[in-house]
# Entry
Amino acid sequence: MNQDQLKQAVAQAAVDHILPRLDSKSVIGVGTGSTANFFIDALAKHRMEFDGAVASSEATAARLKGHGIPVYDLNTVSELEFYVDGADESDEHLHLIKGGGAALTREKIVAAVARTFICIADASKLVPVLGTFPLPVEVIPMARSHVARELVKLGGDPVYREGVLTDNGNIILDVHNMSIVDPVKLEADINAIVGVVTNGLFAARPADLLLLGTAEGVKRISR
Ligand code: 5RP
# Structure
C-alpha cells in the first residue's frame, strides 16, 4: 500500500467509527489536509446520515460544500461529538504536531470544542519523540522578528514560511531543531510569547483516538 492508500484506509476507518454514533442532528468537526480530504470524500457518501460540519479551514469548507455538506459557523453549534483530522506527527501519548497546512489555529479551536478528537494518519506519522517535523507557529505579522528571537531563546531555529498567509491573515514560523521532551510545557511556553496566536503542538488537548494506517491494516491507539 502506498501512503495515499494508507490515508484512504484510515479515513474510511474514521467514517466507520463515527457513523453508528451519528444522527440527523449531528455536526462533525473536520480537519485540513490530504488525509482529512480523504475523510471528507468518504463521509460525503453518507450525506443523509448527519446534519453538517464545522470546517477548520477555508479549503475544507470549500471541499465540504462541493459535496453538498452544509458548513456551520462554530459559534452556532452547541455540540460537537467528533473532530476528525490528520497530523504531521504523533507520539504514543497522542500528543501531536499539526499545522503543516497552516490551519493549526482553527484546528485547535475545533478540537477544543469537540468531545472526541479522532486523529487519522499513515504509519509514518507515529514517532517516539516529537520534533523531527518543524513545529509550525502562527504569528501576528508585526511580531514576526520578536517571536523569532524568543523562539531562538527556547532552543529552536525558526524559519519564516515564505508566501504563506493563514486563513486568519497571519504568518507561519516553522521551528526546526526543537527538543520536545515536554510537549505540554513547550506548548504553553510558546503560546505565552506575545505575538503568537498559537503553535502546532496539540498536547494540552491531545487526540483521544489515533487511527493509524499500516501495511498490516488500521491500528487503533487510544489514550
Ligand atoms: C494542516 C494539518 C494537517 O493535518 C497535517 O499537515 C497533515 O496533513 P496530511 O494529512 O496532508 O498529511 O495539520 O494544518
In short: Helices lie at 3-18, 34-43, 58-66, 104-113, 144-153, 183-191. Residues 12 and 42 are 6 Å apart (CA to CA). The first helix runs from residue 3 to 18. Residues 31-35, 85-88, 98-104, 107 surround ribulose-5-phosphate (CB under 6 Å).
